[in-house]
Amino acid sequence: MARDLDKIFKPRSIAMVGASNVPAKWGSFLLVNLLAGGYPREKVYPVNPRESAIHGLPAYPDIASLPEAPDLAIVTTPAVTVPGILEECAAKGVTNVVVISSNFSEVGEEGARLEKVLVETARRLDLTVVGPNTMGIVNARHSLYAVGAPVQLRPGHISFVSQSGNVGANMLGWTMNQGIGFSKFVGSGNEALLGAADYIDYFGEDDETELILAYLEGVDDGRSFMQTVSRTCLKKPVIVLKSGRTEEGGKAAMSHTGSLAGSDHIYDAAFRQSGAIRSETSQDMLDLAKSLERLPLPPGDRLGIVTLGGGWGVLATDATAMAGLKLAKLDEEVARVCDELLPPFWSHGNPVDLVGNIYMDTHLAIMEALVKSPEVDCVVMLGSLGTGTMIGLNVLVSQSLIMEMSEESLKGFFTELKGRNLRLLARAKELMREHGKPIVFVEMQFIGDENLRDLEGGETVIFTAPEKAAWIISRMLRYRRWLESKGAVTCSTRQ
Amino acid sequence: MARDLDKIFKPRSIAMVGASNVPAKWGSFLLVNLLAGGYPREKVYPVNPRESAIHGLPAYPDIASLPEAPDLAIVTTPAVTVPGILEECAAKGVTNVVVISSNFSEVGEEGARLEKVLVETARRLDLTVVGPNTMGIVNARHSLYAVGAPVQLRPGHISFVSQSGNVGANMLGWTMNQGIGFSKFVGSGNEALLGAADYIDYFGEDDETELILAYLEGVDDGRSFMQTVSRTCLKKPVIVLKSGRTEEGGKAAMSHTGSLAGSDHIYDAAFRQSGAIRSETSQDMLDLAKSLERLPLPPGDRLGIVTLGGGWGVLATDATAMAGLKLAKLDEEVARVCDELLPPFWSHGNPVDLVGNIYMDTHLAIMEALVKSPEVDCVVMLGSLGTGTMIGLNVLVSQSLIMEMSEESLKGFFTELKGRNLRLLARAKELMREHGKPIVFVEMQFIGDENLRDLEGGETVIFTAPEKAAWIISRMLRYRRWLESKGAVTCSTRQ
C-alpha cells in the first residue's frame, strides 16, 4: 500500500512559511510561481512575522494565527528554524510539509545533525515531509506550482520524481517546448523521510498518472526499491535515468547527494529484472515518455521501413540492427501494393524506397499494407511528412517568381500542405488503434519545432532523425516482453 | 593535385538544359531554387525546344543557340538524351556538366548500359561531369543553389559531399535553423566520373573551405580514398558519417547506390588512421562541425566542469568518463578562487558545484581560474547561461504580480538578461583565444532555439544537454592527437 500523498499533491490550502517580498529569495519565487501557476490566491497563506502583506496577499505572523489548518505547509526558512516550524505545524493540525530549505545533510556534519533532528521531530509528530533541500512539487492538473522554477506545464499523465532538483526543473522546462503533458513532479531532495520509492509507489496508484519518470543518483535500500519499481511496472511504465554509471560519476553522485551509487552493472540488471525502462540521456527520457504515452507497444522486433530517399533508409537500417531489431520481410500483399504504385525498379525489399515519390496516396497505401502485414510489428515512415513541405516550398517560390500571391492564397496554400500531413497522421492513428502496432514518423525536413509539435498534436510521435526511432522502439519492445513474461501484457498500454 | 572544379562551383553563367515551367518537374524547381537563391538572372540560360520563356527568362531551343558557351550546364532531361546533350555541350565549348537526370545505373541493367555510354562520351570529350542522379550543387558564398531542395544557407566555411542527395539536402535544411554557415555542397549521385574523393580533394585545396563533411555509403578504391582523406586532414578537419555500419545496413547501401559497403571495422580503422573524424549520427555531424569550426582543439583530456546544480554535474561526469576523458584536478589557485567565492561546503572537487549561485562574477571568476589552470585542458560550463533566464523570469513574474510593467521596461529587462549572457560568452571567447583551450556551454534552461542561436552568434557553441559536450570534445581531442602524430598540430585550428 502506497503512502497517501494526496494532501501533498492536491492540497486545498497552503501555508507558505518564510514567504517574502524580496525577489531573489526562495520565499519569494516559490510564492510567485505558485500564484502565477493559477493556484487559488484565497487559499494561500503567507507566513512572515515582519510583513503584513506579501505579493498582495495578507501575511500571518506565525502558523498558529492562520485562519484554518491548511492541507500543506511549504517551508523556506533557514534550516535551524525548521524543527520548530514542524512543531508549530503539528500544533495547528498541519500534517504535510514540503521543506524547501537547504543547509542540511548536503553541507556537512552540522547540517546532518540538524537533519536528524528534523527526522526525529517529523516521526514523533507523525508528519509527512518532502525534502529537505527540495526544488519543490508540481501538480499540473491542479494548478499547483510550488517549485523553484518558472515552469507552467501542459496538463497530462506523466509524473516525475527527481533526485536532483536542477535536473528535474530543467527537464520540466524542456517539456514546455516539446508538447509533453505532465501530471505531477517532485524533487525528492535529501529524502530524509520520503524517498524516491515512496513517490513511485504513490504515482503507481495515482489515477492521474499513466507513466512515471525517475532521475536517480542512488537508493539506500536497493532490494525494496526494486520491488516497488517491479510492482509499479506491472501497472504503468517506469522510465529511469540513473546517473553514477561510471566510477567517476558515482563519486560525483556521492558528493552531490551523499548516495552510494553502487555498481552500475548491478543497477542495470536490477532495472531489467524489475521492468524499468532505462534511458541513456536526459533527452532520451522525454522521447521515451512521449512514445510510451502515445504509441502502442510493438508486438515484436520486425520493422517495416518506408523511405523517401535511399540514404535515410540505409541509416535507418543501421540503426535498426544496432538496436537489436530486425527488418521485416515484405510479404506478397505488400509487394503487390508496391508493384502497383512504384516504378518497376523499386527496391523490392525493406526499406521500401519511394525514390522521391510525392503522392500522398502512395505513402498511405504502403503504410497501410505494411501495418496490416503479419510479418511487420512496427512501421517507420521516413520523410513522408516532409514531402508536402518541400514540394510546397518549391511551388511557392516558383509561383511567387511568376506572380504576386495574396496573403490569403498563401495561407490557403499552407493550410492545404498541413492538411496533407494531418491526413497521413490521422490515418496512422486509426491504423495503430486497429492493429496495435506503432507507426513512427521521422521528419528530416526542417519544418520548425512549433509546427512539428502542432502536427504531433499530443497524439503521435515525430522524430527529427531516424537514428533515434529504432532505439526507442527497442526499449518499448523490451518493456512489452517483460510484461509478457509476467503475464500482464495489455494492462498498461493504450491500444 | 586536385581536379579543378571551379567552373562547377563558381560558374559565371549556366545553361539549364531541360528547364521547365511545370511546377512538379526537376527542370522547374532546380531553376526556381537557382533564381530564388540570387544567382544573376541574366547569366542563366534555360534550354527547352518547346517554350519561348521559362520562369520569366528567355528560353533557347538548344545548346548551340546559346549566346555564349556557359561555364556550366545543368541537365534535367530524360536519361536517354544525356549522351547527346554531352555532345552538344562539347560542340559549344561547355566542358562542365552537372547531370541531375536519374534512371541510370541505380535502376538496373538498361540504366547501367546508358551510364557506361555517358562515361565513355564524357571521357572522349574531356568533360567534367557531376552525377548522374545527383541532388545538385550549392555554393552559398556565390549564391549558387542548383539543387533540388528549397534551401538558402548562411554563407560560411563548411563544405559537404554527400553520397545521398536526400540525406545531404535534409541536413543542409537543418543547418538553416542551427546557425551553421556553409561554403559548398555536392550530391555526388552515381559517381560515374567524379567520386567523393575528388570533391574532398577539391575542398581540401579550396580557400573558401575550412572544414569538410562527407556522408558516405561506400567507396570503390578504398586505399586511394583514404590517402586523399589523410592528405586533406593535415590541412583541415574531415568529418565523415559512414552508413552501412551493420551487415543489414551494408545490404541496404548496396541496393541504394550499388556501393560495396565493406567491413565497418576496416572503415573505422582506416578513418582513424587517416585522421577523419567519424560521427555516429546525422545530427552529431553538424554538432561536430559547429564545434570544430568555432572552438580551439583541446590540448589534452582533462575537463574542468562548473555546474549550477549537482545533478547535471553527475551526468556530465558520467559522460566525461564514458567519452574516455578525465576530470581535471583542481589546483591551489582554482581552490583559492572557489574558497573565496563559494560557501565553505562547496564541492572541493571537480565538478565545481555552484549550488545555485547566481552571481555572474562568480561564474566568470571560476571559468577564468579553470581555463588558466595548467591542470585543465577544456572547460565545460553547465547552466551558467540559464541562471539569467530563470532569475529573470521569476523576477518578472513577481514584478508583474505587484505592478503593471510597461512594454519598454519589459524590453529593457530582457536586454539586461541577454547582456549578462553575452558578457559571459564574450569573456569565454577572449579566454579561448588567449589560452587555446575550448570553453563549452551547456544550457539546460529552455530558452528557445532562436535565442540560443542568437547568443551563439556563430562564434561559440551552446549545447542543450551535457551528455553531448563530452563526446564532441573527445572527438576533437582525437583529431588533435592525430595531427600531433603527424607533426602538424597547429596548421588547421583557429586559435
Structure description:
- The structure is a homodimer of 495-residue chains.
- Chain A is α/β, with parallel strands linked by helices and 495 residues long.
- Chain A has two domains: 287 residues, Succinyl-CoA synthetase domains (Rossmann fold); 190 residues, Rossmann fold (3-Layer(aba) Sandwich).
- Chain A is 46% helix and 16% strand.
- The first copy, chain A, is built from 17 helices and 20 strands.
- In chain A, the strands form four sheets. Chain A has a seven-stranded mixed beta sheet, with helices on both faces.
- In chain A, helix 7 runs parallel beside helix 9, helix 12 packs antiparallel against helix 13 and helix 13 packs parallel to helix 15.
- The longest helix of chain A is centred in the last third of the chain and has 29 residues.
- The C terminus of chain A is likely disordered.
- At the A-B interface, helix 2, helix 5, helix 8, helix 11 and helix 14 of A face helix 2, helix 5, helix 8, helix 11 and helix 14 of B.
